[in-house]
Fold:
Amino acid sequence: MKDVNINIAYIGIGSNEGNKRTNIKSAIDLINEIADCNIEKISSVYETLPFGDIEQNNFFNAVIKISTKLNPQELFIELKKIEQRLGRIIREKWGPREIDLDVLLFNDLIFSDEIITLPHKGIIYRDFVLVPLIEIEPELIHPIFNKKIVDFVLDLKTKNIINKLSEPLFTEED
Structure:
């Protein structure tokens, strides 16, 4: 029988400062250490052009699927603690970041408060979120539009993904 207290969340991870690969891997390790959180799936890492008009390094982006007993606000707070722990410096909007952790989807929840908006508003406009999301969950439906996530990729006017990194983040030894 399924535990009704278990939530499924998808988290977008990005980095374009410092050792981007290590930053993403460390963030995933720390998310896995949060009480009542388990990593279910990890996408490949994609090298992407920065989003917005600020001159900066390319990003590495990935998406993970987790199961958790936390509510959206609790998860958001834990993710912000991880960003701080990994040295994120708050800069201008869409600026460089050591690590960026965004709750993309949380169950089928449609919700907004002063802390978090679900689903994340930017999902449908960003290939660097859509493509890794589709990689780990190809049949996923956007709860607001009741449309498969894969269908949004076809409508994108801007493509940010440069390439998919060939090396997985984690190996058998990890």
Summary: Helices lie at 20-33, 72-85, 127-136, 149-155. The chain has one domain: 7-164. The CA atoms of residues 11 and 103 lie 5 Å apart. The chain has a mean pLDDT of 91.
